[in-house]
Amino acid sequence: MSAELILASAIFIAIGVILAVVFMLTKFIGPQNKDSVMKNNVYESGVTNPVGTTNNRFSVKFYLVAISFLLFDVEVIFMFPWAVNVVDLGVAGLFKMFIFMGLLFIGLIYIYKKKALSWD
């Protein structure tokens, strides 16, 4: 066997042993909570006594706003490379970006007309 293979195997085994030792140490050194009632209580954002049940339904508006945000947020990712190379792309690149932004604006108008952004 080559020296590199032996070294890689030794490093792999050493990392495994170190991880096992660290996990064992956290079991003994870490805080112990023997009270299972407190351990199984709900804790969400600082509220220890939640209001309502888990069967409450959310309005579809939350999902529409989230999807709209993702749609218009991803378009910014396409604008960064264009902004970096705007000089190299020239007038054709500028025209193509105006078409892209125009399509996004049409999508925004469509979302506005469907009243996906208004809350009742």
Automatic annotation (TrEMBL):
Spans through the membrane: 6-29, 62-83, 89-112
Listed EC numbers: 7.1.1.-
Membrane-topology annotation of the record: Multi-pass membrane protein
Entry's localization field: Cell membrane; Membrane
InterPro entries: NADH_UbQ/plastoQ_OxRdtase_su3, NDAH_ubi_oxred_su3_sf
Coiled-coil annotated spans: none
GO terms, molecular function: NADH dehydrogenase (ubiquinone) activity; quinone binding
Catalytic activity of the protein: a quinone + NADH + 5 H(+)(in) = a quinol + NAD(+) + 4 H(+)(out)
Predominant cellular place of this UniProt entry's protein: membrane
Superkingdom, natural source: Bacteria
GO cellular component: NADH dehydrogenase complex; plasma membrane
Swiss-Prot/TrEMBL keywords: Cell membrane, Membrane, NAD, Quinone, Translocase, Transmembrane, Transmembrane helix, Transport
PANTHER family tied to this protein: NADH-QUINONE OXIDOREDUCTASE SUBUNIT A, NADH-UBIQUINONE OXIDOREDUCTASE CHAIN 3
Role played: NDH-1 shuttles electrons from NADH, via FMN and iron-sulfur (Fe-S) centers, to quinones in the respiratory chain.
Family: Belongs to the complex I subunit 3 family.
Protein name: NADH-quinone oxidoreductase subunit
Organism field: Aliarcobacter trophiarum LMG 25534
Upper taxonomic lineage: Bacteria, Pseudomonadati, Campylobacterota, Epsilonproteobacteria, Campylobacterales
Designated gene of the protein: nuoA
